[in-house]
Amino acid sequence: MFGWGGNVLRIDLSRRKYVVQSLDPSLAQNFIGGRGFAIKTLWDELPPGTDPLSPFNKLILAVGPLTALPIPNSGKLLVAAKSPLTGGYGDGNIGTWLAVHMRKAGVDMIVIEGKAEKPTYLFIENKGGEFKVDFNDASDLWGLDTFTTEDRLKKVHGSDVGMVMIGPAGEKLVRFATIVAQKGRSGGRPGIGAVMGSKNLKAVVMRGHGDIKVADPVLRKIGVDAIVATKSKPNYPFWMRQGTTSTVEWAQEASVLPTYNYSEGQFDYYENIGGFSVERNKVMTRSCPQCVMACGHVVKDSEGELAELDYENIAMLGSNLGIGDLAKVAHLNRIADMMGMDTISLGSTLGFAMEATEKKLLKDGIEWGDYKRAAEVAMDIALQRTELGKLLGKGVRAASMELGQEAVEFAMHVKGLEISAYDCHAAPGMALAFATSPIGAHHKDAWLISWEVQRGRFDYTKDKVEKLVEMQNIRGGLFETIVTCRFPWVEVGLELDWYFRLFKAATGMDMNMDILSTINNRIYTLIRAFWIREYGHWDRAYDTPPPKWFKRPLTKGPLKGAKLDYDGYYRMLGWYYELRGWDERGIPRISTLKNLGLDFALPQLQSVVELKP
Question: Which of 73, 90, 417, 418 would disulfide-bridge 348, Cβ 3.0–4.6 Å?
Answer without folding.
Answer: 418
